[in-house]
Amino acid sequence: MSPMWSSFVSSRSQQSSRAGGDEEENPGGDRRRLPRLKIPGKIWKNSKQKKNPAAEEEQEEVQEVQEEQEQLEETSRRLIIREEQLFCQDCVDEEEEDQLQRELEALQLQILMVIHNTFTSSSSSSSSSSGEVGALRSAVASIQQQEEQDRRWAGRPAGRVPAWRPQKCLSSHNTLLCNMVESRLTEAADDESGGADQLSSPVKREVCRLGKRVKEDLLTVVRMVKDCYPPQMDILNVYAGLYQQRFSARLIRLAASGLEPDDCSYLLFWVNHCYPHDILKHEELEGKIKTACLGSLLLQDDLTRLEEQYLTHTEDKVKLWLNTALRKEEESWLSGKTPELIDHYYFSPLAIDVIQVLDGSLNEFRCVIREQSKAERITAHLESFLSSYKKSVEEFVKGNHGNVRSVMKAHLVCEEQFRDYITGTCVTEQQRRRCLDTLSALKDCGYRCLTCPSQLKVCCSQLWTSGWLDGSLPVVDSLLDSLNQHLSDLSDLKPACRQAVLSVLHQDVALQYVKRMMKTRRKSREQQVGGAQRMIEDSQKINDFFAEGGCSDSSWLGSMLCSIAEILRLQDPGSVQLEVVLLTRTFPDFSDAHVSALLSLKTGLSAADVRSIRRSVEENRPLDASSNHGPPFFSMVKVKWINNKINQMGLKT
Fold it and tell me: Is 508 a residue whose pLDDT tops 60?
């Protein structure tokens, strides 16, 4: 007999002794010796014992026990009737009273044994399980009957109430449930065959076994036990509360023992994720357990302490991993090694390695820590890493290294991978902005290394000269020939990165073109018309060049140059006004200073015309800049000096 049952039987024997008087049982006394209770052998069998080889005999025995158990409700009802009849008499027969008490005690013991076997049906055959469910239903009904009988006797004169009343079957039932839950969790914690052998530490194995037992037993309750109890008893939440208390007590003890980092994260994983999500929100349990009443498995102080321990360790680990990855990459650059070629383009594993470290840490964090906003303590190390990474690349580019172009091609791929990750990952808006700014600087470093944009200024300095205007000086043709020679070795750059480089280069060409135009002096009407035609031709050549190179997403630059050319070609103030307003609505960064600079090239406009156009632009400029669809361009063209000059000329509205 288990210690739990020993203590229970002992307590019931003491109650029986008090109820029956101080006389000891003896063969020669006036009272008969209490007959030995016939306890069906099957009830006391441990579920781990080997089955009887005589299967048919065992089946018959099981069936007999089940039939006896399912008759508990009828037996309880019969004993209550006998009790009512006995104590309605003027003189109670003591021998019959003793017999009735013995039968009631035997009934209660059998009821509690059925309750004690609640979870054995989960590992039994289907026929045995259905029989035990029937027995449990009958036992619960008997408890209700006895509780009702306790209430009937309440308030009656003491001399006319049976000595065994109140029976308090429900209280005994609840005490038994507490002992059962404690016993089952103790058994689970010590069970070496609990399916947690693959875990690396005793703490992890214990937590896993406990959690699995809680889940299995709660699912047994909702599947087989719940319907045996009346709704008002809410037996599922009774069990959920008991398992929460016992599971919590064991985890609190473990938390106070001083955990290693891995054990700490595993315990938090169960407390903050597995238990509330995989167990309490299991599809068969969700909505049936009052989770708000349960609270956390750990005390608040313990939980806060363990989470801080986990975060500190994770931060240190991530920082170490990222610094190590960057150091190894720097050593590879400085050793003169050429990056690996994959699919015919240069590639570095740095970004993938870093992203895997961050992603793995963040995925674990989401299951371990309650406050998801604390993830910024981890992602902050990505921000620091990118800053160090950018500085390292810039320093490397300054050195005289023969592998610099191949290294930069590989790290433009890294920049693209980092950008995609940061755009899609969960970081704060401030962190995202700072990281993307750092990556833009890294991308610009690679762009400068591969394209040498300083040559653009030299080539574009010949625009709007007389040779350019009359066509004798092929400025754009020479520029594109130079670019073609310089870009000829970009075939081993990843196609998406190559397109991004070409797109930036296309924009730089357009910027230099517009800047040069804005700084030219006022031209005659014929020069304006001729320059506009030349701009349209140049725009087409530039667009064709970059389109042939595989860059199609920057064709809007050609349309923008053509719009400016149209403003220069037109001479009617009204037509000029319409084109300027259209350009302003297309490009939100086409400011008043840019309008002034462009109109300063027109010789046929009076001061009144200029003021009218500028006033119309302001009236038609969209209030919400987000409604504009054009990408930023004119914000990179600085023309403040033009605005000051216009003010001096008295042309400001």
Answer: yes
- Architecture of domain 304-450 in this structure: Orthogonal Bundle (1.10)
Q: Are 95 and 32 in contact (CB under 8 A)?
A: yes
- For residue 631, CA distances in Å to 83, 419, 501, 619 come to 93, 19, 17, 22
Residues 6+ apart with CB under 8 A from 98: 20, 31, 32
Closest CA to 314 of 262, 352, 268, 274: 262
Output the 3-class SS for 73-100: HHHHHHHHHHHHHHCCCCCCCHHHHHHH
Summarize the confidence of residues 495-500 as an average pLDDT: 88
Q: Give backbone dihedrals phi and psi of 346, rounded to 5 degrees, phi first.
A: -70, 145
- Output the CA angle 183-186-190, nearest 5 degrees: 140
Q: Is the pLDDT of residue 290 over 90?
A: yes
Nearest to 253 by CA among 272, 240, 267, 235: 267
Q: Can you tell me the distance from the alpha carbon of 388 to that of 50, in angstroms, rounded to the nearest whole number?
A: 67
What is the residue whose two structure tokens read 């049976």? 162
Is 246 in contact with 182 (CB distance < 8 Å)? yes
Cα 413 vs. chain centroid, distance in angstroms?
28
342 three-class SS: strand
Residue 63: per-residue pLDDT: 59
Three-state secondary structure string covering 148-160: HHHHHHCCCCHHH
Cα dihedral 577→582→583→587 (10° resolution): 140
Q: 386, exposed or middle or buried, with CB in 10 Å at 0-12, 13-18, 19+?
A: buried
User: Which residues have C-beta within 8 Å of that of residue 409, sequence separation ≥ 6?
Assistant: 339, 345, 346, 446, 450, 490, 492, 493, 494, 497
DSSP letter for each residue of 562-613: HHHHHHHH---HHHHHHHHHHHHHH-TT--HHHHHHHHTT-SS--HHHHHHH
Longest distance between any two alpha carbons in the chain, whole Å: 142
3-state SS of 176-194 is HHHHHHHHHHHHHHHCCCC
Q: Which of 241, 187, 176, 231 is nearest to 212 (CA)?
A: 187
What is the spatial distance between Cα 247 and Cα 211, in angstroms, rounded to a whole number? Answer: 8
279 vs 10, residue with greater confidence: 279
| pLDDT above 70 (res 555) | yes
Residue 27 has pLDDT above 70, yes or no: no
Q: What's the CATH number of domain 453-648, 1.50.10, 1.10.10, 1.10.357, 3.30.1490?
A: 1.10.357
Contact status, residue 308 vs residue 255, Cβ threshold 8 Å: no
CA 220 to chain centre: 30
Q: What is the pLDDT of residue 630?
A: 62
452: left (phi over 0), alpha (psi -120 to 50) or beta: left
Q: Are 358 and 424 in contact (CB under 8 A)?
A: no
Q: Which two tokens stand for residue 337?
A: 């090694």
How many CB atoms lie under 10 A from the CB of residue 537? Answer: 13
User: What is the spatial distance between Cα 391 and Cα 388, in angstroms, rounded to a whole number?
Assistant: 5
Cα separation, 377 vs 630, whole angstroms:
37
Task: Specify the range with the lowest mean pLDDT, choosing from 7-16, 113-122, 393-402.
Answer: 7-16
